[in-house]
Design brief:
transport; 9 helices; Outer membrane efflux proteins (OEP); about 425 residues; four-stranded antiparallel sheet; elongated; alpha+beta
């Protein structure tokens, strides 16, 4: 009996453990509930594009530190251990240990150090803007992928309704065929239309799964993560005019600010190159300790040096450097103009696309209502024997097309609005 009792106890424990594992697996497999704001937040947290931009920003920060060190005093400690043996005429040989401590300071570099520091600081500001631009692009990518999931989900529902309608119609046709009121061709045509609708549904479901994977990719989630989307494709009017949007973009777009900074950096690069025409002044001081025995700290000497140098001839190397810098500066001016035009064009395109989609929303919504009414009438007429099978088929195709157009208009409007905010450089909160 005790053995039988222990066996039952172990079996109960195993069953309880299995039940716990099943429940844990069910929890782990539960779909992730996701709003638009959630998807953007996850993308901003996990997307590698932002991490890369932050790494570049950290690089730029240390470049500033490196350049600023050029204005500070530097020190060097050198230890030398030597053994010497003179030629055969003398028998002197020995060894020596010396320690040299020196400090130096670049008093004047012709403006080279100062220009280098300004370039590095401007580069850091540009790196900050690159982070902003990366965040704005990731926000747009997450939003557009989220809207794509909504679009494909709605299209799946449209195709499901089409299959349901055609299935019900086929049952009606078969019932009428069995009593001899319709021809066999009506049954065959209805079967073909249903098969075509089922094919469209399969494709729509596949497109939805691909859209989910793309959204997971942007958010940095496993591609197989199941999502439960909270929102629906909606419409919220946009108040700003095109001129307002363009004016805003010229003030806020990070890429445009970067182009302006690039021009400032290249101006400093010209000054950096022109420093080669000017003299440099360096002061240094140090002490030298040496002794035949380690560590070599017996005999002490010290020195102080002030050094001025001026490169009066370098075969045109400095002039060539200045000309290169000036050419790069001129190029950056053209790039700035090009970027300004490009930003305005992007804003204009996104705004016009948004407005065009906005107009389609109203007309396509009316078309959906009309197509639904037409389909109901076609069904009633066919059942009453005064309409044809082709009327029902055509009405179903028109209904599916109207619903698809309405979903497409909502999708185009929302994605265009998100693209407009990116083109304007709207900051990411």
């Amino acid at each position: 009996m005790p053995g039988k009792y222990r066996w039952k106890k172990h079996l109960a424990a195993m069953l309880a453990g299995g039940f716990l594992l099943l429940n844990t697996a069910a929890v782990l497999a539960a779909p992730m509930e996701l709003s638009l704001e959630d998807s953007i937040a996850l993308a901003l947290k996990n997307n590698d594009s932002i991490k890369i931009a932050n790494s570049s920003r950290e690089n730029a920060r240390w470049q500033v530190k490196e350049k600023e060190a050029g204005k500070s005093i530097s020190g060097t400690l050198t230890h030398t251990a030597s053994k010497y043996d003179y030629d055969y005429k003398t028998t002197s040989e020995g060894k020596n240990f010396s320690n040299d401590l020196s400090v130096s300071w670049n008093v004047y570099t012709g403006g080279q150090v100062e220009s280098g520091i300004k370039q590095a600081r401007l580069g850091l500001t540009s790196a900050d803007l690159a982070v902003d631009a990366a965040r704005q692009q990731v926000k747009y990518n997450a939003a557009s992928k989220y809207f794509t999931v909504l679009q494909t989900r709605n299209l799946v529902q449209v195709d499901k309704e089409s299959v349901e309608n055609l299935t019900a119609h086929l049952q009606n046709v078969q019932a009428q065929f069995e009593v001899g009121t319709v021809a066999k061709t009506d049954v065959l045509r209805s079967q073909v239309e249903l098969a075509n609708a089922q094919q469209s549904l399969i494709k729509a479901e596949n497109n939805y799964q691909l859209a989910v994977s793309n959204l997971n990719n942007v958010m940095g989630q496993p591609l197989s993560t199941e999502l439960q989307i909270k929102q629906e494709l909606g419409y919220e009017p946009y108040a700003l005019s095109m001129d307002d949007c363009i004016a805003y973009s010229l003030q806020q777009r990070p890429e445009l600010a970067q182009a302006k900074l690039s021009e400032e950096i290249n101006k400093e690069a010209v000054k950096y190159a022109q420093a080669g025409y000017r003299p440099t002044i360096t002061v240094s001081a140090g002490t030298d300790l040496s002794d035949p025995t380690f560590p070599g700290d017996n005999h002490k000497d010290w020195y102080a040096i002030a050094k001025a140098s001026w490169n009066i001839f370098d075969a045109g190397a400095t002039k060539a450097s200045v000309k290169q810098a000036e050419a790069t500066l001129e190029e950056s001016g053209h790039t700035l103009n090009q970027t300004k035009d490009s930003v305005q064009l992007e804003v204009r395109q996104a705004y016009l696309n948004m407005k065009e989609a906005e107009k389609r929303i109203d007309t396509s919504k009316v078309a959906v209502d009309q197509a639904q009414e037409d389909f109901k009438i076609a069904q009633v007429r066919y059942t009453a024997g005064v309409g044809t099978n082709l009327d029902v088929m055509d009405a179903q195709v028109a209904l599916t097309e109207a619903k698809t157009n309405y979903i497409q208009a909502l999708y185009d409007y929302n994605t265009s609005k998100a693209d407009l905010e990116r083109a304007m450089g709207v900051p990411v909160q």
